[in-house]
Amino acid sequence: LHWQDGEWQLPELRVDFPGGGKLSGNGRWETARDAAAESALALTLQVQAFNTAQIHRQLRPTRLQGQINGRFATTTQSLSFSLKDGPWTLRGGLKHANATVDAQQIEIFNGPAHFQLDGSYQLERQEFEFAGLLRDFDPSLFVALPPARLNAAFGAAGRWANLPQQQPEIEASLIIKDSLLFNEALSAQVQTR
Questions:
Q1: Cα-atom radius of gyration of the chain, to the nearest Å?
Q2: Cβ–Cβ < 8 Å for 10, 19
Q3: DSSP code of 145?
Q4: DSSP assignment of 31-68, as one string?
Q5: Angle at 121 between CA 96 and CA 133, to 5 degrees
Q6: Cα separation of 117 and 134, whole Å?
Q7: What confidence tens digit (pLDDT) does each residue in 18-76 have?
Q8: How is residue 167 annotated by DSSP?
Q9: At 55, is the secondary structure helix, strand, or coil?
Q10: What's the pLDDT tens digit per position in 3-18?
C-alpha cells in the first residue's frame, strides 16, 4: 500500500480459493479532486482457474479465466466481468446508483448457444423489470440438471409488497418454442398479470 499522485495504490491483491483457482490484481483509492466528484475504490482483478462448484454443489465444475473490473464510491458502484471456460464466455455488468440496481447485458454464450438477461430493481420502491432470452441453450452444462435445448424469451415487471397487507404486483411472460426437455419437444406461451 502506498500513496502516489493523490491516490492510494494497492499494487498486489491476491485471493487463493480452496480447491484451486485464484483472484489477483490491483486497486487504487481515487480521492475526489473537486466537489462534483467523489472518492472511489477502483479494482482490476484477474480470475484464474476459478471453480464455480466451490460456490454451490449443484453447479458444474469450471476453470473460469478472465477479468473483473469494479468501481465503488459512496453513491455509485459498478462491476463488469468477462470470463471464459473453454468455448464458453460469461460477461456482463452490474451497476448501483440512485437506489437502483441494473443488470447490464449479462450473457453466457458458446457459438449459437446463448443466454442473455437485462434488468433493473429499484430498492426503495421495490419495483423490478427484467427480460431475457435463451437460444439453443443447455443449462445442464452449468448446473446438475437433465440435458435440454431451450429457445425462449421471458420477462417480468412489477412491484414486491412493501407492507404485510399489500400483495405483489407482477406481470410476466414466457414464450418457449423449438425446444427439447427430457428428450421431448417443448413449446409454451404463458402470460400472467
A1: 20
A2: no
A3: S
A4: ---STTS--EEEEEEEEEEE-GGGT-TTBPP--EEEEE
A5: 105
A6: 9
A7: 878 999 999 998 887 777 788 899 999 999 999 988 888 898 888 999 999 999 999 99
A8: P
A9: coil
A10: 777 678 888 899 998 8
CA dist 57 and 64 (Å) reads 16
Q: Which three cell numbers stand for residue 122?
A: 429499484
C-alpha grid cell, residue 153: 424469451
Asked if 109 contacts 117 with a C-beta cutoff of 8 angstroms, the reply is no
Distance spanning both ends of the chain, measured CA to CA: 54
Residue type, 8: W
| pLDDT at 180 > cutoff 80 | yes
C-alpha angle with apex 58: 62 to 179, nearest 5 degrees?
A: 90
Residue 167: pLDDT above 70? yes
**Which cell numbers in the block locate residue 39?**
472518492
The residue whose grid cell reads 500500500 is: 1
- CA 190, CA 193: separation in Å to the nearest integer? 10
The residue to which cell 490491483 is assigned: 26
Helix (H) or strand (E) holding 163: none
Query: C-alpha distances in angstroms, 111 versus 84, 86, 87, 89, 181?
Result: 13, 12, 8, 10, 21
| Mean pLDDT, residues 131-152 | 93
Half-sphere exposure at residue 78, Cβ-oriented, CA atoms within 13 angstroms: 12
